[in-house]
Amino acid sequence: MSAQRELFGTYRPRDNWLHRVPVGAKGLALLVLSVILMLPWQRWIPGLDHPWPVPLACVVLLMILGATGGVGWRSWWGTIRPALLIFVLLAGYHVLVGTPHRGAGVLLTVLGAMFATRILLETTPQAVLLDGLVRLLGPLRGVGVKPERVGLAIQIMLRAIPYLLGVVADVRSAAAARGIRMGPVRAATPAVIAAVAHAQRTGEALAARGLD
User: Fold this and answer.
1) Which of 14, 32, 143, 188 is an S-S bond match for 70, by CB 3.0 to 4.6 Å?
2) Are 67 and 123 in contact (CB under 8 A)?
3) Which pLDDT tens digit goes with each residue over 176-194?
4) Which value, in Å, is the radius of gyration of the alpha carbons in the chain?
């Protein structure tokens, strides 16, 4: 799996019901899910003593829905793997301080949000997502916000991330071929240089089109 497909994934074209759901409906479902994950249900539901059952149910439901839309185990593992160390550290902390149930609730809440984002990004083309964001920001024109420019900025950012990941991977591969082991600090130096150069080229291209 390529670096840019890790964590949240990218669009995978398929012909199924989940891919055909309008982006507005997906965004609304994501908002509702976020509210469900954040609310303290154990305070309101009799017999629910711990915070983890509700986010667990959400995670299971998301996996079932994802499976019907072609999001498989590799995609779920691609979401978990980059954050696995953080999950382990977070779980270890809650075990040590004696709050494993709360830790399980936190982990499942984060996982539910990540899985929902994965489904959204794998079943919706990037252009459709950006168009939906521009329409969503439309009412803010009255306060000076320019939705098209916001969408353009996000598109530039999304295109820059895979480029920078590729730069870091190329630098490490070149160093490994020469028997040089590069730590995060040494690998960051060429990435910063490449980021600055990429930003300058992007700025010049935008200025040439009158978008500066």
Assistant:
1) 14
2) no
3) 788 777 666 676 777 778 7
4) 21
